[in-house]
């Protein structure tokens, strides 16, 4: 019997897909789940459930450390945001999940992989493009684009027909994706962009009103752009992020509400919680302000925009991402130091910045004279800096009309 | 007697400069002050003071409306920030003040203009480059770069010698620049980037802890990217900004603390309050997310970075700024609509977004089928979108090593 | 009977499509052909042929002037090239042809448009995206993606079956697309990128060896970036381009041979002749060097890359193209003047440049002193310009290892 | 006696400077000359001349290999041009010469370096910024900005006064800079941009009319973007470039005539000969077209513009250049292969392209079906690719007015 590896979550959809792959194609189905920090409840009993639903075998891999260190932190160092706000928590997880599926597929000699992403979203692209890049010969099956099931009711009917256990939990009026970096919410009641998200939706962060009335202080230490310690204590990546999530969530930091442009051509509305990640981005930027020179920072802003697009579009395994990482690596050489943040009811303020490689030179910044800077030089600088505009004014009188108003 | 126009604030520095220009060059000094919303105290008695100090005449112009409509709002529409945080409140004021000086100089037949900006800052560049662009034949005098006065004490001594009234106010341990858009603070105790700014420094915004415990709601309406109404009431630009400053300041919105790269080559630390402006930027971006297509938004991100640089560098009167404005005008054609914001102790959340030109299409965004979108199309899209990576994988096996880890 | 408008060329393919649309869908077929300067032979007898093949009516529109003035010249002013070499002659024609089809479709009340572009090329995208942007409700039929005809032999068989006249001309071992701006060649014997194109393929240009041994001189005059005169004689756009094509072609100017990246995901090889266009691009750039300031030029280089992508991808009717045009319009305000070129066996050299708005200031460029430029200013300029690197060297000793080698 | 290291060429200017440094400052002057391939005549007798003029010691270093391999080839790989035409031959030499001076200065314990660049050009900036980056404590002396000598006549007078040998060669009516990569010409009779350069000025290239009437063929092989062999024969960098210069020069390849924007704020006119370099750029680009994917190529175009600016501005020893090099290194991983060029009277055509890493896939490029590409996919691709424009058209009718014309 040919084999297929299915990205399996234990929910209704992938359970139905699991069975459908057997019925429709006669596949032996290998269930694959990556633990990216979606929470213990999600993974509990997953193996049993998969086998009960008909899987021939089940792989559950704890990839949290890999996720943070090989995917999230490089992205953090790039400064990438999608459309200026989204910290890319779902996007960045997809290539890793797909890589895991491909590894299992190759090991098991499967001829195909399958996923439960719908035909309107970004995730289908991210999964499939990754598979194409890593194992171009593998077949990819995306049931939502081809089967007859059209709704949750159809899926439940299908599940009942095949004795697949249907989760008893009340379905939420939106869909969620969770990992150690973030939770995303979209669809359902969130589809009206004029409607606020309900307060009880948020799982990782308190609201500012419910947060403590005392500020919390946290110092994040980076080495070459990678967070390595909190409050002076070195931590492994998973602990560090869990701790930051707790502090930031408690203090109401990390919510984003965004109308965004999907890769597949339409606008959609997403709401995100990225508590620890928000602190990391904030602190990392502050440290860059201290340690990067102006021209590098400026070019890196353009790199960050492109990097965010690459991650959002699922192009992780592309030559351009690798080349941008080489650029970023070079820029992060001296992004080492400590940023102290004060958190209070959703606000982040900087209470300290320190780096052995700081380019901030107190003597220069003050308005007093020093040996490095002769104020008279500024006159020469301005004369040359302004020369093109002056010449244009002399030769063309470009802005004369401005003087009349 | 030849004439000079001096940008005069009534403070110690420009008072001393006023007299120094007479003593040093034998100039007849015309004092010029622009009311950009720096507050009534700043302007009170300015004329008398200038005349008492030796000015031959005084121009005080209320340019608040011009400032907002011809300088600030175009910048707002561009989305420009400097180094991702600074809303450019000081930078954007400089070309207007310089233009005012030049207009007076031409009217009065002055041969020179003078300003009190120091030789280490950005403002000297902004003033002088603007003068060069508008009236390349005018002489520019920057006393701080040439005279012997080196410190506040030197200035006070000079003032006493010439009976110039020395302000009795206690000098603040930092310097400030204020207009209707913002206040900036820098120098003095702020020069240590590891030191938090003192709470009592802030004049426009409460701290989150001191803000009311009830959220405030404000709806901002834009027409072609320009803010035109609050809570449904049309307002002139000055009233609109004053109102927004009050609401935002009351609710602790609008502080920024930044180590930034000055044009003249060093890093410096600035702290800024831009309460109303922060709301405007936030709301304008949200409206763009709703009304701009993806590719326009993406390119506009690059334009915003460049525009921010242009404003910060004082290149307002440059052909590139004008060409970028033409680009921006075109993008803002449909940036019309209402954004409702909820403010609470420093947090801004979106409680509503609405535009007659919204490109958000609910039918498309839902995960259900519709006539515009056939999910099967996504399969074809992904195949072509992923083709380059697939071909590379087939021909080169680029990422094979990724599968071993 | 429902109607369809077909982009009809009179060749075998679109003749077969014409009939196939009637047979397959029962459509009344309206043949549409745009005269873009593909040459008189192409259009001769087109109407009779279409009617004989079964068209219910035929539209042949001379759009050469529109093509040049509304499509080609804006592109020229943008400086757009695709992948640094291709002057976009086929790409830029597609939105205009599609617009013509849509106009006829709306006038005739047709429900669909059809084209003969294959499923592997860029043109299908350009045609269809334009139709979607202009008339989103129109159905689009692309027979090559759906019918059973797979080869030229299949098409001939089909033609014979329905008595469609098969062109007697010997088929060329590559495919061509021609208009007043260029000819493109691709496919067939050109598919091997290691193989030179045969000399007898080129229709518009002599080879350098066969060109005259005397240089030809031509002076091109631009007004706001638009070419308006040759050798001092004002000319309408069509005459101007025809004349330039002749001069350039005679002197072996305008061939390009390129492996390029198609939008649909693969690399392909194209060979192009754009004789007059090459002169226009060359001359326009020279004039910009004389009349644009440095910062505008630099940003415009990025705009040109994006513009080239937009044209190549068929996104002419997109908000971003329009916004970029607004930018470009502003930059071209002073791109007025005369560029004299000397052509000799494929070489273009500049024998003169002149503009009333030249920013070249002889006094400044010479190495002698003048009142505008004080060489001492350069010292100050360098000190500030180099300050960031100097500070980095002092604080970090970044490049010390460079001194050892 | 304190020491100074002078960049010494043996010409009138640096000879006078040598003596002036002794007279003015009492310096012991160490003459430094780098052999970058400026030709044997330039270096002949240099040591004797320097000592005769008063140098205490002389360093002449053959840096041709270093120049090509550590400076020129990285720039070649970046694709950098300045203002789309200039191959940066003078710019790229400056940081290496300055590095050599600094090395000697440190070795000799000199307190200063000096150069003969004028106060209006770019070279002063390039020299001095490099010195600041490498040895920020060194004093820099630029006599042309400070002394009283204003003209060639002044310099000759000074030389005579101090018995400095004045070169008997007739001075050329323009100035030149030569190295193994190029010759630049500027100033004098070239200052009128409406005037063609005289044919007898060119030293490295024949004119197209004087070139042989038979094409020459040369195959250039690259490894990771670096040229390593000609016509199948491996060559060291210096031989390779000398050979290419000869072939290209003989065949009239490599002249550029440009009005360019100097860093110091004015436009100037430069004429350049870069025969071998032109072939290398051309061939390298072709190889990239074959071996780089589209998105990497596109981003690299932006990198090339920035890289060109960095080199032109003398910012070689800047963190951004290093980070861009890391990006470029990554992109060049597979830029290995052979490009065959045919040269004929100034024309370069490609007669062959070959790479083991070619991404050109013949099966894909043909218009026939294959297993990798299903033409039906194109329909889905277009539908999603065009969706934003279609939605905009439906919701806004943006382009309706286009249909009326």
Give an overview of the whole structure.
- 4 copies of one chain form a homotetramer.
- The first copy, chain A, has about 400 residues and is of the alpha/beta class.
- Chain A folds into 2 domains: about 5-70 and about 85-170, HUPs (Rossmann fold); about 175-290 and about 335-355, Argininosuccinate synthetase, chain A, domain 2.
- Chain A has 15 helices and 14 strands.
- The first copy, chain A, has a 5-stranded parallel β-sheet with strand order 3-2-1-4-5, sandwiched between helices. In chain A, strands 10-9-8-13-14 form a 5-stranded antiparallel β-sheet. In chain A, strands 6-7-12-11 form a 4-stranded antiparallel β-sheet, with no helix packed on it.
- In chain A, a hairpin with a 5-residue loop joins strand 11 and strand 12 (about 265-275).
- In chain A, helix 1 (about 10-25) crosses helix 8 (about 150-160), helix 5 packs across helix 6 (about 125-135) and helix 9 (about 235-250) crosses helix 10.
- The longest helix of chain A has 19 residues, at about 295-310.
- The radius of gyration of chain A is 25 Å and the shape is elongated.
- In chain A, about 60% of the residues are buried.
- At the C-D interface, helix 5, helix 6, helix 7, strand 11 and strand 12 of C face helix 5, helix 6, helix 7, strand 11 and strand 12 of D.
């Amino acid at each position: 019997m040919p084999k297929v590896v299915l990205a399996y979550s234990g929910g209704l959809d992938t359970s139905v897909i699991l069975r459908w792959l057997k019925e429709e194609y006669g596949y032996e189905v290998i269930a694959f789940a990556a633990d990216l920090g979606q929470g213990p409840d999600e993974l509990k009993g997953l193996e049993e459930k998969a086998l009960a639903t008909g899987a021939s075998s089940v792989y559950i891999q704890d990839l949290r450390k890999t996720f943070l260190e090989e995917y999230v932190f490089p992205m953090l160092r790039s400064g990438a945001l999608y459309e200026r706000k989204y910290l890319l928590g779902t996007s960045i997880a997809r290539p890793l999940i797909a890589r895991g599926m491909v590894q299992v597929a190759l090991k098991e000699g499967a001829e195909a992989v399958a996923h439960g992403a719908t035909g309107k979203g970004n995730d289908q692209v991210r999964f499939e493009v990754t598979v194409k890049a890593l194992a171009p010969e593998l077949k990819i099956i995306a049931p939502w684009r081809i089967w007859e099931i059209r709704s949750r009711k159809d899926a439940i009917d299908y599940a009942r027909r095949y004795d697949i256990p249907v989760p008893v939990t009340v379905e939420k009026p939106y869909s969620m994706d969770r990992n150690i970096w973030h939770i995303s919410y979209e669809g359902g009641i969130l589809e009206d962009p004029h409607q606020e998200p309900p307060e009880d939706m948020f799982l990782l962060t308190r609201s500012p009103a419910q947060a403590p009335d005392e500020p919390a202080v946290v110092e994040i230490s980076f080495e070459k752009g990678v967070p390595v310690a909190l409050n002076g204590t070195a931590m492994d990546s998973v602990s560090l992020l869990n701790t930051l999530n707790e502090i930031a969530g408690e203090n109401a930091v990390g919510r984003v509400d965004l109308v965004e442009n999907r890769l597949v051509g339409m606008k959609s509305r997403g709401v995100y919680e990225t508590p620890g990640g928000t602190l990391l981005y904030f602190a990392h930027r502050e440290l860059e302000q201290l340690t990067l020179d102006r021209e590098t920072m400026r070019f890196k802003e353009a790199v960050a925009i492109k990097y965010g697009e690459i991650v959002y579009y699922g192009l992780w395994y592309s030559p351009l991402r690798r080349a941008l990482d080489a650029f970023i690596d070079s820029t992060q050489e001296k992004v080492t130091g400590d940023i102290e943040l004060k958190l209070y009811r959703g606000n982040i303020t900087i209470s300290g910045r320190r780096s052995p490689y700081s380019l901030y030179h107190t003597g220069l910044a003050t308005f007093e004279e020093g040996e490095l800077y002769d104020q008279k030089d500024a006159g020469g600088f301005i004369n040359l800096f302004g020369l093109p505009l002056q010449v244009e004014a002399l030769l063309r009188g470009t802005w004369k009309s401005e003087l009349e108003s």
